Amino acid sequence: MRIVVTGREGQVVRSLIERAAYQPSIELIALGRPEFDLTRTETVSEAIYAARPNLVVSAAAYTAVDLAEDEPELAHAVNAVGAGIVAQAAATVGAPVIHLSTDYVFSGEGDRPYTETDPTGPCGVYGQSKLEGEMTVAAANPRHLILRTAWVYSPFGKNFVKTMLKLAESRDTVSVVSDQWGNPTSALDIADAILRVADRLRTDPAFDAFGIYHLAGSGDTNWSSFAREIFAASSNKGGPLAEVRDILTAEYPTKAARPLNSRLSTDKFFDVFDWRAPKWNISLAQVIDKLVSS
After folding, report:
1. How far apart are CA 287 and CA 17, in angstroms?
2. pLDDT higher at 33 or 87
3. Which fold has domain 2-158+184-218+263-278?
4. Which of 126, 153, 213, 252 is catalytic?
5. Predicted local confidence at residue 241, as pLDDT
6. Nearest-angstrom CA–CA distance, 55 and 26
């Protein structure tokens, strides 16, 4: 099965490359700049047409949440227009598209996990651009699977886990917000789930359960408790350790508002694909092990 994934350096892309290496039936092609650029739509279609994939994974995105408040046009061009072009090109070559989205499409209100049918209501430019991307993808390719995820980390790129470990190298104490809740999600688990979906599409030509799904780590926590677990796992492996001081969101102002509630219910994904991510602390320990040992 030939799978094209957009982007080369993102956490999910690099995780997919690692996981697909153990599946000889998968040929994974990562498309990235300069020959593939979501702001230059002609390069998007040409690259996908040339690859002739059986499945397209739309992972490349504009993810600078705060900077998006100053660059709304660029965020829209990449996350909405570019995503739609990817989905349209996939449809043209007869391939379904898996598109990665985010918890930021919700307002962050309430204290229960969001389901796929809950009303959306982004509170910033980034979330709005990703919500528009969901719409353009769905309109461009009826065979779409939109996977909303949250709090993504991995051994690759920039993420909260790596930031905490880096801070602990020079600080005894770090301050972390305690009133934002969500599901820490390993990009390696996202990759496993995507490959699970790919196998289902390959073996079930009658599959028709396309639409929106939530895909996130099992269990929820807040950022400060997440940080404590990071340091506990790191310390167990001989890595850096720091104490965590709880602060409120109001004490850590950012240009773009962060959702207080990013919890996502993954029951629908489990019902359809019979797959659920491990408990978030188990996946975290595996990533910490990779980071500390390297």
Report:
1. 16
2. 87
3. Rossmann fold (3.40.50)
4. 126
5. 96
6. 11
Phi, psi at residue 162, to the nearest 5°? -65, -35
Flag whether pLDDT at 155 surpasses 90: yes
Predicted local confidence at residue 291, as pLDDT: 96
Measure the CA–CA gap between 142 and 132, rounded to whole angstroms.
16
Task: Give the single-character DSSP code of 261.
Answer: B
Helix (H, G, I), strand (E, B) or coil at 285: helix
Helix axes 160-168, 280-293, angle to 10 degrees: 50
Q: Read off the tokens for 69.
A: 């408040």
How far is residue 130 from each of residues 146, 148, 149, 163, 241, measured CA to CA in Å?
Answer: 11, 10, 12, 24, 35
- Domains of the chain, by residue range, sit at 2-158+184-218+263-278
pLDDT tens-digit profile of 193-233? 999 999 999 999 999 999 999 999 999 999 999 999 999 99
User: Among candidates 261, 257, 255, 247, which has minimal Cα distance to 216?
Assistant: 261
pLDDT at 35: 85
Please name the amino acid found at residue 70.
D
H helices within the chain, ranges in order?
Answer: 11-20, 41-51, 72-76, 83-92, 125-140, 160-168, 187-203, 223-236, 267-273, 280-293
**126 counts as catalytic:** yes
With a cut of 90, say whether residue 76 has pLDDT above it.
Answer: yes
Give the phi and the psi of residue 160 in degrees, each rounded to 5. Answer: -60, -40
